[in-house]
Write a structure and sequence with these properties.
The chain is α+β, with helices and mostly antiparallel strands. Among the domains are: about 70 residues, no CATH class; about 180 residues, Orthogonal Bundle (Penicillin binding protein transpeptidase fold), CATH 1.10.3810.10; about 100 residues, Beta-lactamase (3-Layer(aba) Sandwich). The protein has 25 helices and twelve strands. Strands 2-1-3-8-9 form a five-stranded mixed β-sheet. A five-stranded antiparallel β-sheet has the order 5-4-12-11-10, sandwiched between helices. The chain has a two-stranded antiparallel sheet with strand order 6-7. Strand 8 and strand 9 form a beta hairpin. Helix 9 packs across helix 11, helix 14 packs antiparallel against helix 23 and helix 15 crosses helix 17. The relative contact order is 0.08.
Length: about 700
């Protein structure tokens, strides 16, 4: 039996040996034959280099395509939603005094079927925005090459390379951020749109969704706004003016700059001739008789606020069967105008000096009502709301959360701690200027924006989690990274986050119920939602003592600390500046007993400013807005601060060459609040008017007796 087993194993061994040898022999023969076959394709000289280059190009192209697809994939998540549905809400917005300030959603008779759009408008848009629209597949390489050639010849950007489909993809799914990643997403999404929609549907959506200036979206709404007529009835001159708005609605809006709008319309007429859509004889009448517009010079909608408020309306009113609504908001039109002017003037006057191009701010009345919001320099150029959606590092303005936790833990403003070198793992934070003061009070540390003190507090006593928990409790809604650098404000937040959180302090430690809606009514006048009635009462966030301590410390910043340019004349001011690494962001967030304002300056592409700190432009802008906000208002005290409300502020030194004793320049008229009735008085007068309207008429005999 054993001999038989040995025989079987010997046979198996012999079979394996022969099989392996035969396999190797056949493989060698195959390789030799293959080598001989490919020798006939062997190339030398320039052919060899050409084919090697093509091979490398194919390899790199494949890798690049995979990388671009990986970058574009997140954008396709937007297409999963019901992206066609803009919502069936039709909302008319009123300011806090009951005046109409704008519309959002589907404006009645706003959407026009494609077949009803005038031929003149379609030709004008295609001639100006995308002449090869019906010939390309979403990306026009011929048009892109022509644009590059024209721009190179002109020495600047005179012609864009994006197709109409790419512009629609940006309007529907993306922001106006200028980056390679955004362009890649835009290209892939344009291919997706071309694959899922007809050319007529794409063009119709483009004409219905694009921003056209004046707070209008779509050609139909713009036609009503600028010309007071349906888009079906526009003539060639008006169609040319509408088509010219797509490039830069803020620059060419006719109610803002009619000469520029007519000049742009003339360019559109030339495009119609150059593209072959019309002859010069067909457009000559439109050149000689340019479009005239309805006078809208006085209407300037707070568009950034309206976009945010519309989102709030959709959230609150989703459960209501009625979606045609009238919404009274919290916005103060006078303060809003001052805020927009302050940002615009500051960027125009100091933007080049500080290399800063954008700013955002939010002003809350203590309690949470949004009184002003600026989401960027120009809504026409970019509808991205930097006040509510822009995530930026807050720098030292984030330190209040560490100090609030410290006050809750039993420390006081007079508690001393060492300002000296501190190490946390492999991180060693430094103070501005790389100097140390030794043992100092927490008040001094906060006022002077010492970096080592909050880091030492969190490292040795408080912990990162408690700081994150405090920030959330005070109103920061943006997710915060759990990181040892948190005490110095390295985790991004929004301007709205900071305004909401700081507003807790002048409210006595109670939650700031941030809101932009006072009430919502249907068109029959029925109140569907009332903020005071339907929202819960504010909860306590800080103990009264901790809140008092925080206010006592923060009121020192504008007088002995980094925020001296923010101090209001005669009104006690508190706040904190913030400046991030490489001067990318500059903040000032502060408050009085009445209002809280958060201000941010920076650049969308995160490039550094020219040494701009939170105590410079942000503090100056804060002061301009808050000075106006307090005109004609009874000043409230800041809780826990015993100093009198009137603070002696040192007058600014006279300018060079100006004699001493010269009276300060008067406040510009645009920064003087007009005399108006209070909200309470306005509401009372409305109530009296309603009662008189509803009252029964007097009997004839009684009327005669009274006479």
């Amino acid at each position: 039996m054993q001999k038989k087993k040995r025989h079987i194993f010997l046979k198996l061994d012999a079979w394996l040996d022969s099989t392996l040898w035969n396999t190797g022999f056949q493989a060698a023969e195959f390789w030799e034959e293959t080598t001989i076959f490919f020798r006939r394709f062997r190339m030398r000289g320039w052919k060899k280099w050409l084919f090697e280059a093509l091979g490398e190009a194919m390899t790199l192209g494949t890798v690049g395509a995979v990388a671009m697809l990986a970058l574009a994939m997140p954008a396709f998540q937007e297409t999963v939603k019901d992206w066609r549905n803009r919502g069936d809400f039709a909302v008319t917005f009123l300011d806090r005094y009951g005046n109409v300030i704008g519309h959002r959603g589907i404006i009645h008779e706003n959407s026009v079927p494609f077949e009803d759009l005038p031929d003149n408008l379609i030709k004008a848009v295609l001639a100006t925005e995308d002449r090869r629209f019906f010939d390309h597949f979403g990306i026009d390489f011929i048009g892109l090459g022509r644009a590059l050639s024209e721009n190179a010849r002109a020495g600047g950007v005179v012609q864009g390379g994006s197709t109409l489909t790419q512009q629609l993809a940006k309007n529907l799914f993306l922001t106006n951020e200028r980056s390679i990643e955004r362009k890649i997403k835009e290209a892939f999404l344009s291919l997706w749109l071309e694959a899922n929609l007809s050319k007529q549907e794409i063009l119709s959506l483009y004409l219905d969704r694009a921003y056209m200036g004046g707070g209008t979206f779509g050609a139909a709404a713009a036609s009503q706004f600028y010309f007071g007529k349906s888009v079906r009835d526009v003539n060639l001159a008006e169609a040319a003016m509408l088509a010219g708005l797509f490039k830069a609605p803020a620059k060419y809006a006719p109610h803002v700059n009619l000469p520029a709008a007519r000049g742009r319309a003339n360019e559109v007429l030339s495009n119609l001739v150059q593209s072959g859509f019309m002859s010069e004889g067909q457009v000559i009448a439109a050149r000689r008789n340019p479009a005239t517009v309805v006078d809208r010079a006085e209407r300037e909608a707070p568009d950034f606020f309206l976009d945010w408020a519309f989102d709030e309306v959709q959230r609150v009113a989703a459960r209501f069967p009625e979606h045609s609504l009238i919404v009274r908001t919290t916005i103060d039109p006078g303060l809003q105008k001052v805020a927009e002017t302050a940002v615009s003037n500051t960027l125009r006057e100091y933007g080049e000096q500080y290399n800063v191009k954008q700013a955002a701010l939010v002003t809350l009345e203590n309690g949470g009502a949004v009184r002003a919001m600026v989401g960027g320099r120009d809504y026409g150029e970019s509808q991205f709301n930097r006040a509510t959606r822009g995530l930026r590092q807050p720098g030292s303005s984030f330190k209040i959360y560490t100090y609030a936790v410290a006050m809750e833990a039993g420390l006081t403003p007079e508690t001393t701690i060492v300002d000296g070198p501190v190490n946390w793992g492999n991180w060693s934070p430094h103070n501005y200027g790389n100097s140390y003061a030794g043992r100092i009070t927490l008040t001094t540390a906060l006022a002077k924006s010492i970096n080592t003190v909050p880091v030492r507090l969190v490292k040795d006593r408080l912990g990162v989690v408690s700081v994150i928990r405090m920030a959330k409790a005070m109103g920061v809604e943006t997710p915060i990274r759990k990181d040892v650098t948190i005490p110095l404000g390295t985790s991004e937040v929004t301007v709205m986050d900071q305004a909401t959180a700081y507003a807790v302090l002048p409210s006595g430690g109670l939650q700031s119920r941030r809101h932009g809606i006072v009430d919502i009514r249907d068109y029959r006048g029925h109140v569907l939602y009332d903020f005071d009635r339907d929202e819960p009462a504010p909860r306590r966030v800080l103990t009264e003592q901790a809140d008092n301590y925080m206010n006592q410390m923060l009121t020192k910043v504008p007088y002995i600390g980094t925020g001296r340019k923010a101090a209001l004349d005669g009104i006690l001011t508190a706040g904190k500046s913030g400046t991030t690494q490489a001067y990318r962001d500059a903040w000032f967030v502060g408050f009085t007993g009445n209002f809280t304002t958060a201000v941010w300056f920076g650049n969308d592409d995160y490039t550094s400013t020219n040494n701009m700190t939170g105590g410079s432009l942000p503090a100056m802008t804060f002061k301009t807005i808050m000075d106006y906000a307090h005109q004609g208002v009874a000043v409230r005290p800041i809780p826990g601060v015993l100093e009198p409300a009137t603070i002696a502020v040192k007058a600014p030194a006279p300018a060079k060459g100006e004699p001493k004793g010269t009276a300060p320049a008067p406040t510009p008229p645009e920064f003087v609040r007009p005399r108006t009735l209070s909200v309470e008085t306005t509401a009372l007068l409305r109530q009296i008017s309603t009662m008189l309207t509803d009252a029964e008429p007097l009997a004839p005999g009684l009327r005669a007796a009274l006479d």
